[in-house]
Amino acid sequence: MSENELKIENYTDRLRKFEEKHNMKSNIFIREFEAGSLSDDEDWFDWLFVWEAWKKHQRKITLS
């Protein structure tokens, strides 16, 4: 397994934990966050970081 695949696995697990904690799928979270529908809670920004990192490593695998 490549380094990017390991990172994706880790980020996927972290995304799943956010989804369970907030009872919301990540794609819905992103839509709500970008629309400004969520508060300024630090947890939302942590989720956003994990989402962006997951997308970054997905792109790296796609491009390799």
Task: List the topology elements.
Layout: H1 3-22, H2 26-34, H3 42-63
Helix pairs in contact: 1-3, 2-3
What's this entry about, in short?
The protein has 64 residues and is mainly α. The protein contains three helices and no strands.
Task: Report on this structure.
The chain has 64 residues and is mostly helical. The chain has one domain. The protein contains 3 helices and no strands. Helix 1 (3-22) runs antiparallel to helix 3 (42-63) and helix 2 (26-34) packs across helix 3 (42-63).
Name the poorly predicted regions.
Answer: none
Write down the Rg: 12 Å
End-to-end distance, in Å? 14 Å
Structural class: mainly alpha
Tally of alpha and pi helices? 3
Mean pLDDT: 95
Helix content: over 70%
List the secondary-structure elements in sequence, H or E: HHH
Q: What's the total count of β strands? A: 0
Gross morphology: elongated
Number of domains: 1
> How much of the polypeptide forms β-strand, as a percent range?
under 5%
Task: Sum up the structure in keywords.
single chain; 64 residues; mainly alpha; 0% strand
